[in-house]
Amino acid sequence: MPAPRIRTLLVDDSAFMRKVISDIINIDTTLELVGIARGGQQGFDMTMELKPDVIVTDMVMPDFDGLQLVNKVMDKMPIPIILLSSLEKTDSRIFDALQFGAFEFIDKPTNLDQDRIREYRLVDLIKEASRTDVSLLKARQLAKKNVHHHTFTASLNYEIITIGASTGGPGAVELIVNNLPSNLQIPVVIAQHMPHRFLESFAVRLNTQSPLPIRVPSKGEIVRGGNIYIAPGEGNLRIEQNIASGLPMFTFTDRKYQEFNYPSIDCLFESVAELYGKNSIGVILTGMGKDGMMGLSKIKEKGGYTIAQDEDSSVVYGMPKAAYDIGAVRQVVSLKQIPGFIISCL
Length: 346
Description:
- The protein is an alpha/beta fold.
- It has two domains: 6-141, Response regulator (Rossmann fold), CATH 3.40.50; 160-345, Methylesterase CheB, C-terminal domain (Rossmann fold, 3-Layer(aba) Sandwich), CATH 3.40.50.180.
- The chain is 36% helix and 20% strand.
- The chain has 13 helices and 14 strands.
- The protein has helices at residues 15-27, 40-50, 66-76, 93-99, 114-119, 122-131, 134-139, 169-177, 196-209, 265-276, 293-301, 319-325, 338-345, and strands at residues 6-11, 31-37, 54-58, 81-85, 104-107, 160-165, 188-192, 214-215, 228-230, 236-241, 248-253, 280-284, 305-309, 331-333.
- The strands form three sheets. It has a seven-stranded parallel sheet, with helices on both faces. Strands 2-1-3-4-5 form a five-stranded parallel sheet, sandwiched between helices. Strands 10-11 form a two-stranded antiparallel sheet.
- Strand 13 (305-309), helix 12 and strand 14 (331-333) form a beta-alpha-beta unit.
- Helix 11 (293-301) packs across helix 12 (319-325).
- The N and C termini lie far apart (53 Å).
- 48% of the residues are buried.
């Protein structure tokens, strides 16, 4: 007996976009488009009536937008919600929607021919969203912050913390950085899969919440302890030794990676393994695919400490599982325990 199709509701005020997204959903026979709403209020009403498995909604709509829809649905009938975004990079509402429980966001499709439609991630996101534990999405609203200092020893065991995340990652990254001590002495470098125009605003948002300075680094910038860096999405970030000063600095490579690019987690992890070796900590968080698997393996091979988020706390247990399955993970840790566990390693 075939598995039941994934019942999907589409909400968008644009007739053109409703047609484009409907066509994309209808291509896959495992999905069923059970309803199409022209606005947020109608989308909410149809949600209550149809009880879909997944909602795909425009973020920007008049009167009742995607953020309001996320708030109301997650309060009344929690269902995974995928946001279609055309927001500018300075608009932080997308991160508010994620915090309130949205599953993920994706740029609206533009100029899609048949080949590019197959590469557009929406169908894969719908499938992953239908399998997620909605309680994990709602739990983002309850995440707490650490307001305490930590007493470090004079000599630390590690010199850098590097983190990779994809789907479900913004909330996970936010929880971790908000629970690191304000007197952390080593750098943290994070590669988060996200449309490049949002990474700067993601860093700005985190910077307003954390006592540690958080920003997107520039090419040639020296890596400083006590700073958190968010990899930009316009290239694959590496850390290499500055020949003149001998200090670690940020660089970029033209090399393309099999699993993901801009930013590639594998690229960042591999460079950290090469430069820091046994003095590095690598952490792989929730996400679709296998990016970070090979890079984390290299950190472990060099003697660094490797950590993977556990399945129960992962919105999508893809990247952590891939790394675990090849033996690249030394310790599996639940999301809420990761900040404290990292500090205990230092």
